[in-house]
Design brief:
The complex is a heterodimer of chains A (248) and B (319). Chain A has 6 helices and 15 strands. With 248 residues, chain A is α/β, with parallel strands linked by helices. Chain A has one domain: HUPs (Rossmann fold, 3-Layer(aba) Sandwich). In chain A, the strands form 3 sheets. A 9-stranded mixed β-sheet of chain A has the order 11-10-9-12-8-1-6-7-13, with helices on both faces. In chain A, strands 2-5 form a two-stranded antiparallel sheet. By secondary structure, chain B is an alpha/beta fold. Chain B contains 8 helices and 17 strands. In chain B, the strands form 4 sheets. Chain B has a 7-stranded parallel β-sheet, sandwiched between helices. A 5-stranded parallel β-sheet of chain B has the order 14-13-15-16-17. In chain B, strands 2-3 form a two-stranded antiparallel ribbon. Classes of the chains: A alpha/beta (248), B alpha/beta (319). The interface between A and B is large, with 77 and 92 residues. β15 of chain A pairs parallel with β17 of chain B. The complex binds flavin-adenine dinucleotide and adenosine monophosphate. Adenosine monophosphate (AMP) binds next to α1, β6, α3, β8 and α4 of chain A.
Chain lengths: 248, 319
């Protein structure tokens, strides 16, 4: 079985977000990049398939050379090979088209994306890729069991869990629950050494249709200071929420 | 050409976020001089939409769309978007919309912006402001498709009433039978408010010491008609179900009021709840980072403050 895990290279969750160039560019200065957390859950799930069912796990990222350390990390975690599609990822549609071109060349049975990336939070690449390929799509996926071509999956919905059946080939949107945080594989020395020998192919991009562009960033307005209410005077809080904030 | 809004409903009733999406569509239709067409699917009350200003309502009744599946909803809405020659589609950023809208965008070859927080900055070119970096920033996105899709973040634009006399067209179909993904069963906690739909969310952190104390959170929440939520460690330790975990790696919250009890306010927690309008913190440590982002705060012991607050709110509600 061939499994593809799509990896988005994102700023660490603790990063301070700043912009440069008249707020036109994200300031990467001092920012540490990580595997998008949702994708990391997906990668560990893929490695389990490799260990149990001898699946071949490929990781791919669409981006420039600065994304390669993350791909090396994925190889150290256990992926068999890595692919970088050399393209400045501008919008989700174009990224999905780049991924599609890879998927048409290779044949993947299971494609794992994250439910969303934590930088642009588009939540769109996985679904777009599925539709472009004509594959099934299940997002917010918290479990997947394969039996031949049959797929049984669970997804988180508002206030509950849905159980679904489908078949390969399929694209899923991974999130916490697909594996637990304590299951995440931390690369060891042996993994890191092996990763150096594993293939990291760089592919040229294909033509794609860019349907959006990000022109300008803005930070949320600086918050005024908190109004403190004495614990002995809770009526005041109720009055503020009712009369001032008008939320109760 | 038209502006097309999909008004999502659940068990035949529209969600509040649907009225917000229709309001958004109305403003857009006015600014761009187009008609506003609203689609409802299996709603029992399509006439209610007349309070928010559509020119036309397509009320689709379809047995094959009673259970939500992303593919069938994408197929249905793309069909009507084409029939109505929609230039811009507006949806709310609900979990279901977020699921099927990427499929829809590919079917319509459309530009897509999710988590949009305000009316367009410009119509031509179409520029919208959206939330990014999990609410740590905003960006202006130019949509360049010949058709474009906007998903409005809950509670960002607001519901604006505007009476109209729309033509209401009933469409009976049963045509959507894509079975690539089938729903086998749904396991839903009924009778509680879901985080995504809630106007008010009451959330508890590690400061509550253990699951046996959650009646404090639940009591306050039920007094306010609120959803309950929790910080990540609370769900990791199994005090509460995973579905309640909010934050950057959990569920996003965009409620009108968010009450954080015994939550320190770590950056990953705040990122996920920052889109909420008004934030209240109850914490016994005046140095807790949550106080820096909250609108109102009480420095005090949750075990003392929360029962009092619940009692006083009950009295206030019964006035
Ligand atoms: C990659 C990554 C992703 C993460 N994603 C998320 C996420 O999505 N959501 C999330 O929530 N966290 C997330 N975290 C974890 C986050 O960093 C914090 O550890 C977590 O939010 C802390 O939870 P807490 O506030 O409940 O607990 P604590 O930080 O332990 O805070 C407990 C608070 O309760 C107060 N308290 C104690 N006793 C009382 C009392 N009697 N009355 C009132 N107050 C009291 C304390 O003063 C303290 O401020 C993530 C971390 C990482 C590394
Ligand atoms: N540049 C990229 N390269 C590879 N995969 C990506 C890229 N951007 C997004 N993805 C995948 O698509 C998922 C959803 O991303 P997004 O649509 O940006 O929220 C991510 O979790 C990744 O799995």
């Amino acid at each position: 079985m061939n499994v593809l895990v799509c990896i988005s290279n994102v700023p660490d969750t603790t990063s301070k977000i700043n912009f440069i160039d008249n707020d036109k560019l994200f300031d990467t200065n001092g920012v540490q990049f990580i595997i998008n957390p949702n994708d990391e859950f997906g990668l560990t799930r893929a490695i389990w398939l490799q260990q149990k069912d001898q699946a071949i796990v490929t990781v791919v990222t669409v981006g420039d050379i600065s994304c390669e350390p993350i791909l090396r990390k994925c190889l150290a975690i256990g992926a068999n090979k890595a692919v970088r599609i050399d393209y400045n990822a501008l919008d989700g549609f174009a990224v999905a088209e780049q991924l599609k071109s890879l998927c048409e060349k290779e044949s993947y049975d299971l494609i794992i994306c994250g439910r969303e990336s934590i930088d642009y939070n588009g939540g769109m690449v996985g679904g777009m890729l599925a539709q472009m390929l004509g594959f099934s799509y299940i997002t917010n996926c918290i479990s997947i069991d394969l039996n031949g071509n049959e797929v049984e999956a669970k997804r988180e919905i508002d206030g509950g869990i849905e159980t679904l059946s489908s078949s390969l080939p399929i694209v899923i949107g991974a999130q916490k629950g697909l594996v637990e945080e304590s299951d995440l594989i931390i690369p060891n020395m042996r993994g890191i050494m092996q990763a150096r020998q594993k293939p990291l192919d760089v592919l040229a991009s294909v033509n794609s249709s860019v349907k959006s562009s990000v022109d300008q960033f803005e930070k949320p307005p600086v918050k005024g200071s908190v109004k403190l209410v004495d614990p002995e005077n809770i009526d005041e809080l109720i009055s503020l929420l009712h009369n001032e904030a008008k939320v109760i | 050409m038209a502006i097309l809004v999909y008004a999502e409903s659940q068990n035949g009733k529209f969600k509040k976020s649907s009225y917000e999406a229709v309001s958004y569509g109305r403003a857009l239709a006015d600014e761009s001089n187009q008609n506003l067409v609203v689609i409802s699917i299996n709603s029992e009350e399509p006439k209610v939409l007349a309070n928010y200003g559509p020119d036309k309502v397509l009320s689709i009744k379809d047995a094959s769309l009673i259970n939500f599946t992303a593919q069938n909803f994408a197929n249905a809405i793309s069909e009507y978007a084409k029939k109505e020659e929609a230039s811009i589609l507006v949806l709310s950023s609900t979990a279901d919309s977020k699921y099927f809208v990427p499929l829809l965008a590919v079917k319509l070859d459309a530009g897509l912006a999710s988590n949009v927080v305000s009316s367009p900055i410009s119509i031509s070119p179409l520029v919208v402001k959206r939330s990014c970096f999990t609410n740590k920033a905003f960006n202006n996105t130019t949509l360049k498709g010949s058709t474009n899709i906007i998903c409005v973040l809950s509670n960002s634009f607001g519901v604006h009433e505007k009476q109209s006399q729309p033509e209401i067209i009933e469409v009976n179909t049963s045509a959507y039978n894509d079975n690539k993904v089938k729903v086998k069963s749904v396991d839903k906690v009924i009778g509680t408010v879901s985080i995504a739909d809630a106007d008010i969310v009451v959330s508890g952190g590690r400061g509550l010491k253990g699951p046996e104390n959650w009646h404090l959170i639940e009591g306050l929440a039920s007094t306010l008609g609120a959803a309950t939520a929790c910080s990540k460690p609370v769900s990791d330790m199994g005090w509460r179900p995973h579905t309640e975990h909010v934050g950057q790696t959990g569920k996003p919250v965009a409620s009108n009021l968010y009450i954080a009890i015994g939550i320190s306010g770590a950056i990953q927690h705040l990122a996920g709840i920052n889109a909420s309008k008004v934030k209240v913190v109850i914490n016994n440590d005046s140095e807790a980072p949550f106080f820096k982002v909250a609108d109102y705060g009480i420095i005090g012991d949750a075990f003392d403050v929360v029962p009092k607050l619940t009692e006083k709110l009950k009295a206030f509600k019964s006035q």
